[in-house]
Amino acid sequence: MSHRPDSSPYRFLIRDFARSPGAQRTVSETFPAPAVLGTVMVGVPEGAEIRLDASLEAVSEGIWVSGTVAAEAVGECGRCLDEVRFDVAAPVQGLFVFDQSQVGDEEGESEDVFEFDGETLDLEEVVRDAVVLQLPFTPLCRPDCPGLCDQCGARLEDDPDHAHEVIDPRWSALTSLTEQEES
Ligand SMILES: [Zn+2]
Ligand SMILES: [Zn+2]
Asked: Which residues make beta-bridge pairs with 121?
């Protein structure tokens, strides 16, 4: 299988077997992430490695792609804001058809159906969707991360007994009085 020169590494020239139902090829390649896959909170950074292991099978409507995609996602813990890195492994699948109108919406499962020209298979969207679906909405550095103190922002993990003295309301009234006098 050859890459089309000067274009996305996600594109494969498959002219040679696209119209031979039953033919099969495997793809085992590492690509750079095309752009940030994910959100500001969590995602696979642009240029990070994405590993794709898939099989391409020529079927009568086009090419059926199925396999797995793996990458390392980077995010920020939703509680303590520490950097979080974790592996993402996702199933990938899609049907690339020569003519989408022939497939129709028979089963309403059009999300995994893509149209292609019969020569170039562009796997970027399939890979992107697979990775993004696996990302947690709010990543955590660990399930029981205690987060930050809501008063001073200190990391509660470093200081589990962390507490603030609660000022007696009478004293706080006095404090604000002094502050007023000072200003
Ligand atoms: Zn955390
Ligand atoms: Zn505090």
From this structure: 12
